[in-house]
């Protein structure tokens, strides 16, 4: 269509070019442009600048708050890490102390068991020795009685004198013990 207009204008030889606007349209368009430019410059641009400044300040404030929150979080993390390290150290110390206490308790229990075993052993030895002595005394009296009865049967007399009989029994037992000692 534009080609048709240019071709038509060239054929007519007219002074009017449809692609170039008239002077009054250019002037009024310039006036409107200047008025819009002045209104934009005086009204819209300051409001836009104020709005952008507020938004920039809000963003910077939020960034500052975020930085502060980040610093607080890092400080809390460092404090937590320090507390955790202290807790681990304290737990290790408690564990070591418990091991030492356990070793002491085991050692004390061993000592108490050893002492109890020694006491029981000593008591058993004392009881065995007492029973041995009792058996020895009982055996001496029985052996003495038998020996006197046998000696009385061999001699044909009864040995009724207790001191004499006791001396014979003691001499017999001493000879018996001496002969056992020589064999061993």
TrEMBL record:
* Membrane spanning residue stretches: 26-45
The residues forming a coiled coil are 59-97
Its primary localisation, in coarse terms, equals membrane
- Keyword Transmembrane part of the UniProt annotation: yes
Concerning Pfam families, the annotation shows: ATP-synt_B (PF00430)
* Recorded topology in the membrane: Single-pass membrane protein
- Read off the InterPro entries from this record: ATP_synth_B-like_membr_sf, ATP_synth_b/b'su_bac/chlpt, ATP_synth_F0_bsu_bac, ATP_synthase_B_chain
Q: Which SUPFAM superfamilies match?
A: F1F0 ATP synthase subunit B, membrane domain (SSF81573)
Q: Which UniProt keywords apply?
A: ATP synthesis, Cell membrane, CF(0), Coiled coil, Hydrogen ion transport, Ion transport, Membrane, Transmembrane, Transmembrane helix, Transport
Supply the Gene3D superfamilies for this chain: F1F0 ATP synthase subunit B, membrane domain (1.20.5.620)
* Annotated compartments: Cell membrane
> Cross-referenced CDD domains, in alphabetical order?
ATP-synt_Fo_b (cd06503)
What function is annotated for this protein?
Answer: Component of the F(0) channel, it forms part of the peripheral stalk, linking F(1) to F(0). F(1)F(0) ATP synthase produces ATP from ADP in the presence of a proton or sodium gradient. F-type ATPases consist of two structural domains, F(1) containing the extramembraneous catalytic core and F(0) containing the membrane proton channel, linked together by a central stalk and a peripheral stalk. During catalysis, ATP synthesis in the catalytic domain of F(1) is coupled via a rotary mechanism of the central stalk subunits to proton translocation.
Q: How does it assemble?
A: F-type ATPases have 2 components, F(1) - the catalytic core - and F(0) - the membrane proton channel. F(1) has five subunits: alpha(3), beta(3), gamma(1), delta(1), epsilon(1). F(0) has three main subunits: a(1), b(2) and c(10-14). The alpha and beta chains form an alternating ring which encloses part of the gamma chain. F(1) is attached to F(0) by a central stalk formed by the gamma and epsilon chains, while a peripheral stalk is formed by the delta and b chains.
Give the UniProt family note.
Answer: Belongs to the ATPase B chain family.
Q: What is this protein called?
A: ATP synthase subunit b
The organism of origin for this protein: Microbacterium koreense
Encoding gene per record:
atpF
